[in-house]
Write the structure tokens for this entry.
Amino acid sequence: KYFQNKTMMKHMLQSFIEPLATGIFLGIGFIHLLPDANAAFIKAGIQFPLAFFLAMIGFFILLALEHFCNYLNANSDTLSSQIALLTVLMLSFHSFLEGSALGITLD
């Protein structure tokens, strides 16, 4: 019996599958979608690498939110309401961007 505890088995399985899924999503985004978005900006007449710039800004915003959540976790005893509010704000922002992208498509 290699795994004697089911909780340990679930934790080990999650520790292998989560990085795999993260790598797949990052690979799709950076290898396939980002160059296509940059080509679309160039075709629209924008010579500045706007797609890469927006991806970098998005990365830094998410990094700042992660550091802010870690700060809240270390310095607060009423964490659940603050995390819930931050999650709602992040999902609202994502939905706004997704809806905007859907609204400006020409096809």
